[in-house]
Amino acid sequence: MVLQAGIARRELTPFHGVELTGWGYYIERRWQAIRDPLYATALVADDGQRQVVLVALDLMVIDAAFTQRTRERIHAATGIPPAAILLTCSHSHNATAAGGLLGVGACDPFYEEWASRQAATAAILALKQLEPVRMVCAQTQVDDISFNRTRPNGVIDANLTLARLDRLDGSVLAVLANFGAHPTVWTELMPTTVTRDIPGAICDGLEAAYPGSIAMYLQGACGDVNFLREYATLERCHEPAQQLIQAALLALSHAQPGDGPVQFAQQTAVLPTRRWTREEIEADRVAAERRLRENDIFGWRETIGRSMTNRPDDMVKRHGGDEHKAVRAMCEFHLAWTDRMLVDFETRPEVLSTEVQALRIGELSIVSNSSEFFSPFALNVRERSPSPFTMLACYANGRIGYLPDAHDIAAKSYAGYQSPKYCHQFPFTPDSGPAMCDSMVEVLQATHAPS
Questions:
Q1: Considering the entire predicted model, what is its pTM?
Q2: pLDDT at position 404, please?
Q3: DSSP code of 426?
C-alpha cells in the first residue's frame, strides 16, 4: 500500500464591502484593509483503494448548505464520495462567513457562491497533483499561551497534534497542525482588517521552515478557550504563533511513522435540547421593546448584557463608544430572534440533528463536528479515540454554535444562553455534549474497523 497525497490552495479574500463576522451586534464591520489573504487549502490522500479530502477554510463559520454545495462540486468533478470530504474553518474573527449568524455580520450570497467554487477548485487541483508520500505524526503540549475564558482555572485542551507528508526525495509536501484557541488576537488590535490571525501566522511559519510545503491549520476545541489577552498588543501579538511553531518543529523532529490505510465515516448525532418557554421569549421581547421605546440603558450590563456578550464594556467600544447605540443594537437583536423563534418553537423537535465525521490517514485521525466545542469534551474524545494521533476539527461541515458543558448551561452564559438565539436553535442541555462525544468516538471507531 503506497500513500499518495496532493495539496492545493486558492484565495478566499473577500471583495470590498463584504462584512467580517462576529465581534458585535449590527456593527456592519466591513473591512478597511487586508493584512494577509484568506485561503481555502485542500489536501487529498489516496491509499489506492480510497480517497479522502480535507479542506481548511480561513472563514469564521460555514453552514450546512455551503458544505453541501461544495461537496457536490468536488464529487461531480472527482467522484470522491461527499462523506469523504471534510470542510473546516479556522474561525478567524477577521474573516467572513459562509452561512450567517443572526445579527453578527451579514453574509454576501455572491461571495458565498464564489468561496464554495474556490474551495472546490482547491480540492480538484489537489487531486490532480497526487504523488507518493511518507507521513510522520507527532503530538506535544503547549501550555501557558491560552486560558479557559468561562471559569477560573478551567481546563483547556493544550494538545498540539501534527502530521507531515514528505515527498520521496525527502522534501516536505504538506504539514497539518491542530490546536484549539480563539483566534481573536488581531481582532482586538485591528478589527476592520482582514487577516487569518494566529492560524495564518502558524501556517506561514511552518511553510518558511519547510520550503516548498503548504501548511494547514485545523481549529480545535476553543469554545471556552482564548489565547492570553496579554498577547493583544503590537509588541506581543506574534508570540503565540512563534511558540506553537517552535513546539511543532521540535515535535516533528522526533515524529513517528504514520503511513497506513485511508478511511472515512460519517453519521448524524442527535443531541438533546431544551425548548424555549414562551415566558423566556416574551421576556426578551418586552424588555427590548421597552428599552427602545424609552431609550433606556439603565442596568443593561446586569440584564441583557450579562448573557449577550462576554465583556459588556467591549460591546460599547465596538459601537464607537456609544452606549445607547450598543444597547439599541442588542434590543434589535432580541426583536429579530424572537420574531423567528415564535414561528415554530412549540412544534419543532426538541432535539438537534447534526453531522459528525472522521477521516483516517494512516495513524492520523481527524474527527469533526459543527460546534464551538468545549475543552472537557475534547479531552474525553481524545482519551477514547482508537487512534494514536487524533485531531479535532471543529467549525466543520456546518454551524450549530457553542456546545457548552453543564457549568455554562447552568450559568445561562453567553455560550449556554445567547449562542442558541443567533443560531436559531433551542438551548443545549447537560446531556448534549456527552451525546456529541459518543457520536464522535463511534465514527472514529468506524474508521478503524476491519474493511
A1: 0.97
A2: 97
A3: P
